[in-house]
From TrEMBL:
This is 2-amino-4-hydroxy-6-hydroxymethyldihydropteridine pyrophosphokinase. PANTHER family: 2-AMINO-4-HYDROXY-6-HYDROXYMETHYLDIHYDROPTERIDINE PYROPHOSPHOKINASE (PTHR43071). GO terms for biological process: folic acid biosynthetic process; tetrahydrofolate biosynthetic process. It comes from Chryseobacterium formosense. The lineage of its organism: Bacteria, Pseudomonadati, Bacteroidota, Flavobacteriia, Flavobacteriales. Catalyzes the transfer of pyrophosphate from adenosine triphosphate (ATP) to 6-hydroxymethyl-7,8-dihydropterin, an enzymatic step in folate biosynthesis pathway. The keyword ATP-binding applies. Its EC number is 2.7.6.3.
Length: 137
């Protein structure tokens, strides 16, 4: 099986945010190799109002999973950790215990109903994402 280089962004603004992110990364590392992690970065919520500040991290992983398999894998981690809403489905952003976004997958350009790669908002619009990803290019 071939390996793919993937950039993920993880965020949490409920509970022990760093622990939530570390738990998610630990779960990801069971089937994927974590190659690099950024520093943690705190930021205000984007595209919705909340008094809860986010903690975010970027990570580069190596995986044999296809884009959709990887999406299913990280969504299961989110649900298992207690995430109850999916903004892709609800079209509404809310506080969340964990959020795992696939930002890049090799140099693939991919669009489906559930997934768009690359994640252009993280690459070009969101300041916190650009800060986290600046050392990954």
């Amino acid at each position: 099986m071939s390996q793919h280089k993937v950039v993920l962004l993880l965020g949490s603004n409920i509970g022990d945010q760093k622990k939530n992110i570390d738990t998610a990364l630990d779960r990801i590392s069971k089937d994927c190799l974590i190659l690099k992690k950024s520093k943690y970065l705190t930021s205000d919520p984007v595209e919705f109002a909340s008094s809860n500040i986010f903690c975010n991290i970027a990570s580069i992983i190596s995986t044999h999973l296809s884009p959709i398999q990887l999406l299913d894998y990280v969504k299961k981690i989110e649900i298992d950790m207690g995430r109850t809403t999916d903004s892709t489905i609800s079209k509404v952003y809310t506080d969340r215990i964990i959020d795992i976004d696939i930002v890049k997958y090799d140099e693939l350009e991919f669009t489906s109903e559930r997934l768009k790669i690359p994640h252009k908002k993280h690459l070009f619009e969101r300041e916190f994402s650009r800060i986290l990803l600046k050392d990954f290019n």
